[in-house]
Amino acid sequence: MTSAIEIRALCKTYGTVPAVTGLDLVVESGQVFAFLGPNGAGKTTTIRTLLALQRPTSGSAAVLGLDAGRDSVEIHRRTGYLPGELALYPRMTGRQHIAWYAKAKGLRDLSLARTLAERFGAVLDRPARQLSKGNRQKIGLILAFMSRPELLVLDEPTAGLDPLMRSEFGRLAREVTAEGRTVFWSSHELDEVQRLADRVAIIKQGRLVATESVEHLRASAPRTMRVRFARPVAPSFFSGIDGVSVTSCERGAVELEVSGAIGPVLRVIADHDPVDLTSEHAGLDELFLAYYRGPAASPESSRAH
Predict the structure, then answer these.
(1) Strand partners, 244
(2) CA-CA distances (angstroms) from residue 210 to 162, 222, 283, 294?
(3) Which three-class secondary structure string do you get for the chain?
């Protein structure tokens, strides 16, 4: 199966300022793929380059097996796009936007647009200038999804939506991938990413620092172990164990961060009369934030599968 997106050694520089540097990324078809990073990391630059809204300085990008620059018209025909800063015509209603977009796409069947409007509770008969951010976003989502595109490219798609509508977006994204189509999704909403994404890529300062499945991220997240002993213990009891650090130790209560195998630390705990133990993985939001805070990886150390 052709990859939905394939980026090789992509670079984009504005004057002397690098926005994206040596980016390699493959997004397989039929996935919800989350593209994450702090503000200014290069997410929107990458998306705009994929859709030929700007030219790369060097490198290449393919979308649905097509060259992102040479075949941009065909790519736009087969792709639904929601920009991070959605611009609607201020005097046009949502219904007029849908009709105009359908004509531009050559789309005759508007049944999906009507269904989406009902699902999102979209206000369609007021000018866009009178709508809230959330209602404008609903119209943007309808326009992106209404033609049943093979690929959805969504830049912060749930911005301005309330929790109920965020959940509706999640259901819609899963319906799309169940049909073998693909959602490529830039987001700051880490809780949504944990629930919806199959894979994530994390970009920082224009460089890819990680590409993993959500399952692998969960498995590799550090584990926090809290142990209460019958009598006080010294932190030094745990100092020689690989992947274990003591985060607190007071009056027989010890908290450990464990990033390696748990067998060695459990054996040490067992030798010192434990009376209670709890263990939990760190949340993915903590793991993502650790990537954000850490140094940008070199292209050689980034993992793109």
Answers:
(1) 258
(2) 30, 16, 17, 11
(3) CCCCEEEEEEEEEECCEEEEEEEEEEECCCCEEEEECCCCCCHHHHHHHHCCCCCCCEEEEEECCEECCCCHHHHHHHEEEECCCCCCCCCCEHHHHHHHHHHHHCCCCCHHHHHHHHHHCCCCCCEHHHCCHHHHHHHHHHHHHCCCCCEEEEECCCCCCCHHHHHHHHHHHHHHHHCCCEEEEECCCHHHHHHHCCEEEEEECCEEEEEEEHHHHHHHCCEEEEEEECCCCCHHHHCCCCCEEEEEEECCEEEEEECCCCHHHHHHHHCCCEEEEEEEECCHHHHHHHHHHCCCCCCCCCCCC
| Cβ atoms of residues 8 and 188 within 8 Å | no
Residues 6 or more apart in contact with residue 129 via CB below 8 angstroms: 90, 91
φ, ψ for residue 248, nearest 5 deg: -160, 150
CA distance 79 to 144: 8
- The DSSP bridge pattern shows strands 199-204 and 32-36 to be parallel
Query: How far apart are alpha carbons 237 and 235 in whole angstroms?
Result: 5
| Cα–Cα distance, 115 to 48 (Å, whole number) | 29
pLDDT tens figures, 97-123:
999 999 999 999 999 999 999 999 999
Phi first, then psi, for residue 23 (nearest 5°) are -80, 125
Instruction: Give the global pTM.
Output: 0.79
- Domains in the chain with CATH codes: 5-218 (3.40.50.300), 222-281 (3.30.70)
Q: In this predicted model, what pLDDT tens digit does every residue of 253-270 receive, in sequence order?
A: 999 988 878 899 999 999
| Rounded-to-integer distance, Cα 33 and Cα 76, Å | 19
Torsion, Cα 36 42 48 53, to 10 degrees, reads 180
